[in-house]
Amino acid sequence: MIDIRDFVDVDNATQNRRIFGDPDIYKLELERIFARCWLFLTHESLIPNVGDFVVTKMGEDEVIVWRQRDKSIKAFLNVCTHRGMRLCPSESGNSKGMSCSYHGWAFGVDGGLSAVPVEEAIYGPDFDKCKLGLREVPLVDSYHGFIFGCMDAAAPSLPDYLGDAAWYFDIWADVPGGVELLGPPSRTILNANWKSPTENFIGDAYHVGWTHAPVLAAMMGEVPPQASFIGDEKSFQMTSRYGHGLGIINNFGPALLLHECPELAPWMEKRAALLAQSKGPDIARLYTNNWDASIFPNISYLFGIMVFKVWHPLGPDKIEVMTWPIAEKEMPDDLKRRLAVASHRTFGPAGMLEGDDLDNFEYATRPNRGFVTRQGDLNLQMGLGQEREDPALPGVIGPFMSEMAQRGFYRAYADCLSSDDWTELEATTANWKQATLRK
Ligand code: FES
């Protein structure tokens, strides 16, 4: 049995490279992280009508997320219960039922087995279809229209799982009219371990002025000095109990998306003025800042650049990346269209900045094939010892230019992999704040 703490040293903020490619560790991740944690499925705006569905993944388990007759949403494993054929070959659509292309068993929108070809002649009169419906994902819930599912019925509620990260999520998602994701998502296959992009988006401000310097120069006419990504006293990182984290940089000059989509500026100014009245000037300021964030285990978003991503694992060194632009529902259609173009031009599959990052993710994963290389450790000690509490901000706070949020991610990662179930995981993480503050 693997003891993940042999590979993740939380106190010294080092990780052995084997967690980025070892097949046995990967199997444990599928079992103890992806079959246990809340995972993003889709957004309500992408399946608005009865019968609308999308097909997505929970770990490597493929699921159909389906709008029900009563407008609720259920999710089912995308496999026929007869001989295990993949049921739905489409990425999305609308249907009140689906039939398997192998022998023709048919399932209704509620997942029930509704028809079996020549049933009575071959199975007899007592064949019980009730027990042969699609396997349902036990927990499905929505947070500001973002639909999450969880394979473990013993998990805490979705709001409890999001914990301190929900307060931050509310700032940009709990706006009048709500937000939506502009679909369908773009999909890319990448030869990288799923943790590389998640840890990058959770708080790697260090790479921005270096990795992206040539593209920033091309886009903006000049490269902001690398020191400008340190941020000011109002810039910070946050980490939370189950490993969700973010970085928010204050007053970062001309934000990238405003450069690509200047039409967004007057919209955000108007919104910020309303937010200042309803929630106060500090919340309004955060709304106008640039954010990088990840929700454990495999969701990332950039607010300010308006992009939402999921990194689906397809093996120890392969992922499928799904990307959606984020928009507010009340935005005029033309602004949504401009924003989607700008979002894709920066962080879509062929986006100028995405290309830089993908190289980093792939070439941080590939060297692990080397027997000697993969014995080595990696370092996340930037800002160690500068963790603090802030009465105005939930979670544990650290400098914007630090690796505190990444350390929080790997603390939660080690907690998850070393716990047998949610009861043990909740006990293990009960002292997360003191451990992070090193008290
Ligand atoms: Fe689906 Fe036989 S495998 S009907």
UniProtKB/TrEMBL annotation:
Residues of the Rieske domain: 38-122
Key word NAD present: yes
Keywords of this entry: 2Fe-2S, Aromatic hydrocarbons catabolism, Dioxygenase, Iron, Iron-sulfur, Metal-binding, NAD, Oxidoreductase
Transmembrane segments: none
The keyword Metal-binding appears for this protein: yes
Gene3D superfamilies, sorted: Naphthalene 1,2-dioxygenase Alpha Subunit, Chain A, domain 1, Rieske [2Fe-2S] iron-sulphur domain
One Pfam family this sequence matches: Rieske
Molecular-function GO terms, alphabetical: 2 iron, 2 sulfur cluster binding; dioxygenase activity; iron ion binding
InterPro entries according to UniProt: ARHD_Rieske_2Fe_2S, RHO_NdoB-like_C, Rieske_2Fe-2S, Rieske_2Fe-2S_sf, Ring_hydroxy_dOase_asu_C_dom, Rng_hydr_dOase-A
Assigned protein family: Belongs to the bacterial ring-hydroxylating dioxygenase alpha subunit family.
Protein name: Naphthalene 1,2-dioxygenase
Source taxonomy: Bacteria, Pseudomonadati, Pseudomonadota, Alphaproteobacteria, Sphingomonadales
